[in-house]
Amino acid sequence: MLVFGLEGSPRKKGNTRFLLSAFMAEAENRGAETRVIHAHDMPVSPCIECGVCERKGVCSIDDKMQKEIYPLLRRAEVVVLASPIFFYNITAQLKAPVDRSQTLWSCRYRLGLNDPRHKTRQGLLMSVGATKGKSLFEGTHLTARYFFDAISAKYAGGLTYFKIEAPGDMEKHPTYQQDIGEMADLLIDPLIKRRKVLFAGRENRCRSQMAAAFAQYHAGDRIEALGAGGAPAGKIDPAVREVMAEKKIDMGFRIPRSIDEAVAQDKPDTLVAMGCDDPCGDLPGATRIDWEIEDPVGQGLDAMRKVRDEIEEKVLDLVDSLDARS
Ligand SMILES: Cc1cc2nc3c(=O)[nH]c(=O)nc-3n(C[C@H](O)[C@H](O)[C@H](O)COP(=O)(O)O)c2cc1C
Q1: Which atom of ligand 1 is nearest to the CA of 19?
Q2: Which helix H or strand E contains 66, and what residues bound it?
Q3: In which residue ranges of the chain is pLDDT below 70?
């Protein structure tokens, strides 16, 4: 389960980075995978309002947002937006990737597509400011609320701290560790406790992608569904995106992963092998199930639709049988 932090302070040893890294360390201790991107160190171009995302669900700007941040926003199940207050809002560095999340807003609200993890993803704001006026975090809360809505995350609220200014101030705060522990109880523990199912294929570009997406979509609260392949392809099959969009499911920004990478972090209880023999092997501690499903790649859209529907039915049966066992 990935916890992704997007952070906006220009100070490398500042208060926001300290607070975020304390939360990430807590998440790792509880078994989560973590990734952090500091917007100051990885500048993202601002949105140019070209309108491409509203028509096509993709962004016209080819930069780090495209290659790294959209895929992380899609894979993460907890997203942390962390920023100091600059003039009653997040920093300019962080505002650029927040504005670029308009692409994900467009997928949801213009194209009517649901991200497979939309029912489980949680959003957390972390922010610090120097003063103590009661409206200090109002602007940031509002920005965070709409950012989390755009990326299909439930807004879990914020850890916000007044009177934090000089580097080192956050470390001296009397309650930050307890606050982080309580937030981790709320956000991390329920997601870590889910049963883990790995859908493994040869290239993780078609059948295993659809299976993982259906499991996330239908049962993300009970199952952590992973998809991976023995020899992952560079990208998912475009026909998969098309036929899943017919079911209102968004497959954008999903990238094939290797089995080694997927199991390095999460130890699956169940391995569903889909059209792969040797590359899947057996995973210690996981019950293996084999699904014989024809490979529809290159067979046209009707074949892809047939396989999509077959996979959805099998996933629903699997979820029922796992629920019955627990
Ligand atoms: C350009 C700029 C604008 C700021 N605006 C505010 C503000 O509106 N209200 C406030 O309380 N603090 C403001 N601050 C102070 C920072 O929020 C504070 O120093 C914070 O601890 C910095 O976090 P960091 O150490 O993570 O960078 C501002 C600081 C800068 C540099």
Answers
A1: 26
A2: none
A3: 277-279
Number of folded domains that form the chain: 2
Residue 14 CA to ligand 1 centre (angstroms): 10
Which of 159, 191, 223 lies at the terminal end of a domain, its last residue?
191
Torsion of CA 127, 130, 132, 133, to 10 degrees: -80
pTM of the shown model: 0.97
**CATH number, domain containing residue 278:** 3.40.50.2300
Same domain (yes/no): 233, 321: yes
Smallest CA separation from ligand 1 atom 5, residue:
86
Tell me the per-residue pLDDT of 128-175, one tens digit each, with 9 for 90 and over.
Answer: 999 999 999 999 999 999 999 999 999 999 999 999 999 999 999 999
**Which ligand 1 atom sits nearest the alpha carbon of residue 130?**
11
Structure tokens at 188: 């991390």
Domain match, 151 and 261 both: no
98 with 9, same domain: the answer is yes
* Tens-digit pLDDT profile for residues 110-132: 999 999 999 999 999 999 999 99
**Same domain, residue pair 47 and 158:** yes
Q: How many angstroms separate the alpha carbon of residue 157 from the centre of ligand 1?
A: 20
Provide the strand spans (E) within 143-261. Answer: 154-161, 195-201, 223-229
- How much distance in Å is there from the Cα of 294 to the middle of ligand 1? 57
**Which one of 191, 224, 248 terminates a domain?**
191
The whole-number pLDDT of residue 324 equals 86
Q: What CATH number did the domain enclosing 141 receive?
A: 3.40.50.360
Give every CB contact of residue 172 below 8 A, 6+ residues apart in sequence: none
Q: What is the pLDDT of residue 282?
A: 76
